[in-house]
Design goal:
The complex is a heterodimer.
Chain A (H helix, E strand, L loop, with lengths): L28 E2 L6 E12 L2 E12 L3 E5 L6 H8 L9 E9 L2 E2 L7 H7 E4 L10 H11 L7 H11 L3 H4 L12 H13 L5 E5 L7 H14 L4 E5 L3 H7 L2 E6 L3 E7 H6 L4 H7 L5
Parallel strand pairs in A: 1-11, 4-9, 4-10, 7-8, 8-9
Antiparallel strand pairs in A: 2-3, 2-5, 5-6, 10-11
Helix pairs in contact in A: 3-4, 3-6, 4-6, 6-7
Chain B lengths: L13 H42 L2 H6 L3 E2 L7 E2 L2 H32 L2 H16 L2 H19 L8 H25 L3 H9 L4 H12 L1 H17 L2 H7 L16 H10 L7 H30 L6
Antiparallel strand pairs in B: 1-2
Helix pairs in contact in B: 1-12, 3-6, 3-9, 4-6, 5-6, 5-10, 6-9, 6-10, 7-8, 9-12, 10-11, 11-12
Classes of the chains: A alpha/beta, B mainly alpha.
The structure holds adenosine-5'-diphosphate (ADP) and magnesium ion.
Chain lengths: 285, 307
């Protein structure tokens, strides 16, 4: 059931699955529902202490597509990303209300183990953060932690590096420290590390913001390739980047509101919201 | 725009330059006092030790198994019983302080929430500030009686009680330096591991511990060298009987405890007993100095680089 335009159906609490849970008044403009949703956010509020960082976020994230989250700094993009794999649990003062479904299961249910969730939903951070270990051990770390190091670890490591478009550059130095690589290489190492244990979803928080243009374009190419096998959610403050690489775009605006969600082409060519249009055309933000 | 002509000459800033020069000399003098004191201490130790070794052979000192300088008829100067006493206390206390201190550090750095941490850290610092003689009393009046509950034959002075109390004494040193090292591991590394589905235990042991290993090892070494040099608590708890024995319940004597005994006793200046103080002092100095060098080496050798 694809819906165009804002949904006005009243919320129903009837079942644990989001498939038939309806959007509420907070539904953004555009088409926040998708057919092949892997992740469904329903009335998601996030607070840091007394400050509310996200207000009733309602959107779906489609399988094996690139979904971009854009918006001005401080509007809650990282917060939303972290609420998908429950990294917000690690922030003492963070509190989440509402539901976030992964394959129809609310990840904030009491019986969900965030550790198990994070094994399905990998993450790449804004600043490259390789461990002070060898390149090999960096990529193998997730395999070891997740008990997936029984088979041919070396092969899995090489495959991950290959997919992250880094193998050619580091083939002869797998034993040297990950910290010796350049920033762009480090970020691709972190991507290899995230995909080695074969998660379903990869969350990326401005993965290219600390990189030079050449390294950035390598990461962008990589993101598009990754979407053939993984569901990718990427935060970026770079609108051209979102336009280039994403299938769906969610526009967050100041105060932690999701204003519009739609196909990327639609958002950039003909957004419904005037504020989004202003933002996209650089009139503010 | 300034209307005055541009003047960049030294003379134009006379006051500032004078203050700068004076400050430099004051700082330098303070540094010099510290260095000179250290040098003077070493010279005094070496000078006294030379006198001592002109009467006692180095071989007897280093290999003799009996220490009895005050038997005027047949004095013996084997340092090994005193070294043994020191080693038993040091190893015993390290066996207590290293695990407890490290686990405390992990708890404080990785597990405790802000409220608990802000209560526990000052408590540990208080523990570190208690005069060591108080620890000695604590050993005599509390630890030894508890040991005696289980082993009624144990005497008032025994090595076990001393090792336990020194262990407790150096826990804050191990835990606070280790905790500093662990806290300086950037959160980005923890997040990387959590993001891969690591548990808190895995993050602590596989990411934080290795990344802060150099600081933790340095903490161990500093704590151990503190145990080697510890004096008042062991003088009270361990006793004054230099002997080599495997029994942790036996009375022993450490190098430092002997120095207290002779230094506060009746040994006259210039006597061989008095001179032995310098030999022991130099030996202790060399032991702790080596430990501190080792700690510095580890820090520089294994210093992790983060961006
Ligand atoms: N760890 C935190 N503690 C308290 N407030 C936070 C924390 N992280 C983010 N915030 C606040 O939440 C809001 C959204 O931040 P964030 O999600 O980082 O925005 P974005 O990624 O879009 O720049 C901001 O007002 C920010 O100050
Ligand atoms: Mg952000």
């Amino acid at each position: 059931m694809t819906a165009n335009g804002p949904q006005t159906v009243a919320s129903s609490e009837s079942s644990g699955s989001a498939t038939d849970a309806a959007m509420t008044d907070d539904a953004p403009l555009g088409s926040p529902r998708v057919d092949d949703a892997v992740i469904e956010s329903r009335d998601l509020d996030v607070y840091y202490g007394d400050d509310q960082a996200l207000h009733g976020i309602n959107m779906d994230i489609p399988e094996r597509k690139v979904t971009a989250l854009i918006g001005p700094s401080g509007c809650g993009k990282s917060t939303f990303l972290r609420s998908i794999n429950r990294m917000n649990d690690l922030i003492d003062i963070a509190r989440v209300d509402g539901d976030l479904y992964f394959h129809g299961k609310d990840v904030y249910d009491d019986d969900v183990d965030p550790v198990a969730l994070r094994r399905k939903i990998g993450m790449v951070f804004q600043k490259p953060n390789p461990f002070p270990k060898s390149i090999f051990d960096n990529v193998a770390y997730g395999l070891r932690v997740q008990g997936k190091d029984d088979g041919d670890v070396e092969k899995k490591v090489r495959t991950a590096l290959e997919r992250a478009a880094l193998l050619d550059e580091v083939e002869d130095q797998l034993d040297s420290s990950g910290l010796d690589l350049s920033g762009g290489q480090q970020q691709r190492l972190c991507i290899a590390r995230a995909i080695a244990p074969d998660p379903e979803v990869i969350l990326m928080d401005e993965p290219a913001s600390a990189l030079d243009p050449v390294a950035t374009s390598k990461i962008e190419d990589l993101v598009e390739e990754l979407a053939e096998e993984y569901t990718v959610v990427i935060v970026t403050h770079n609108m051209q980047q979102a336009a280039r690489i994403s299938d769906k775009t969610a526009v967050f605006l100041t105060g932690g509101h999701l204003v519009e969600f739609d196909d990327t082409g639609k958002i950039f060519e003909n957004p419904e919201s005037d504020r989004v249009e202003d933002y996209i055309t650089g009139k503010f933000g | 725009m300034s209307s005055e002509p541009l003047d960049l000459s030294r003379e134009s800033n006379d006051v500032g330059n004078t203050v700068d020069k004076a400050a430099k000399w004051i700082f330098f003098s303070c540094a010099l006092v510290t260095v000179l004191t250290t040098v003077a201490i070493i010279l005094v130790l070496v000078d006294g030790a030379i006198d001592f070794f002109s009467e006692v052979s180095l071989v007897e000192y280093l290999t003799g198994t009996e220490w009895n300088p005050r038997d005027s008829a047949d004095p013996s100067f084997g340092v090994l019983p005193l070294v043994w006493g020191t080693m038993v206390i040091t190893v015993g206390s390290a066996l207590i302080a290293i695990p407890v201190g490290t686990l405390t550090a992990i708890y404080l750095s990785e597990y405790a929430d802000e409220r608990i941490r802000s209560a526990l850290k000052p408590t540990l610092e208080v523990l570190a500030g208690i005069p060591t003689i108080v620890y000695g009393f604590f050993a005599l009046s509390f630890i030894t009686p508890i040991i005696q509950l289980f082993y009624p034959d144990v005497g008032v002075f025994n090595a076990l009680s001393g090792a336990i109390v020194v262990g407790i004494m150096i826990i804050p040193m191990v835990s606070s330096i280790s905790e500093d090292a662990m806290s300086s591991v950037p959160d980005s590394l923890r997040n990387a591991a959590y993001g891969l589905g690591a548990t808190k235990f895995e993050v602590s042991t596989q990411v934080v511990l290795p990344a802060s290993l150099s600081g933790i090892l340095a903490a161990y070494i500093l704590a151990i060298s503190r145990a080697i040099g510890e004096t008042m608590a062991v003088t009270l708890a361990v006793g004054m009987l230099p002997q080599i024995t495997m029994s942790p319940f036996a009375e022993m004597q450490t190098m430092t405890a002997y120095m207290v005994e002779i230094g506060t006793g009746d040994a006259s200046v210039g006597s061989i007993g008095y001179m032995s103080l310098f030999a022991l002092g130099l030996t202790l100095f060399l032991m702790t100095f080596t430990m501190n060098l080792g700690s510095m080496w580890i820090r520089s050798r294994y210093r992790e680089e983060y961006q």
